[in-house]
Structure prediction request, 379 residues.
Amino acid sequence: MAATETAAARLLAGAALALPLTAMPVQAGEFAATQIGYKHLRYDEKGRMHVNAPHVWFETSPDEDTQIGGSATVDTLSGASVQYVSNRGGVPVHTLSGASIRETRRDGELHLRRNWGENNFGLALSASRETDYVSRSASGDARIDFNERNTTLAFGLGATEDEIGKHGSGLWHDRRTYDALAGVTQVLSKFAIVQSNLTYSHGRGHFDDPYKYTISFLGVGAPVVQQDRRPDERRALAWLTRYRHYLPAAHTALAADYRYYRDDWGIRAHMLELSATRELSPALRIVPQLRYYSQSAADFFAETFNARGATGSSDARLGAFGAWTAGVSLAWTIDAHSSVDIGAWSYRQRAAYRLGGKGTANFPTLDARFLMLGYTLSF
Prediction:
């Protein structure tokens, strides 16, 4: 998805967007007891990529007003990705790399939250490393409760520094991105709550993908080879609104999220997600989910080029397309100290799924599935 958030933006979102899926309202105050957990995610793209991602995390509270937490993930990726686009056969074709790719990414995050009266403050640090990409980020946020804790204002700032390279090239490039978040959460009734947040992001530096290029055959002469070249600056704005409503008689919490994204590359994106958390028993919950995503193409996106330009990319992630994700998860509370959750999701990406049905003409289809297994221990 082209509207991928920076590490700092994800940390800010995680701090500001904690909305419950159970009965309302949520009362701020003491943090939960110590918890440790493990999740394993398996991602498979049909005929392409496979990812295994074990993830461990912890949360602990040395006192009722302080929470310390962290997580670590190791992603192991294997398979092949699109390397270039060529119209040699008359129609642009997105061609996979010939060699098998195997990459490992290590990611870690630490955060601290502290209550001061009606207010709540947080700090977070994260780092990620793989062979040709290194990322470090920091963020801070504040949540201010008033109106008898029925209204919460959230503010946050974050910064991410990335280093991007290419296997064997010896060349590394920098990118810095700054994020800001402002939002409000409002309790509407005993069983309903709404939240709206704006996130602004400004990045400068290297956005090119060093592994991708385009070969355009024009009928005469040598083909035009366009390396992946993107602007060295990107400004983005995202608006996310979330609604939660609990139905006591049905023992079900309904959730709806809508996100609008736009940037100065020309991308406009919409995301709508619906889910329902149904209590099958005091110990068992089921959560069906459905998500729709649609985006327009970047201004400099094309699948053929008449001449090499200062900017130009045929990366399908910058094209116009839509996608559906559907899945279900189960959460089982074993006893007062442990729980298990499992989930499975299916993802389908097509040009025709874009709003209005007018996506990139030769956009490559993508089908994928996600499998997740998790365990949490509280003490």
Remarks:
- The first strand starts at residue 35 and ends at 45.
- The chain has one domain: 7-378.
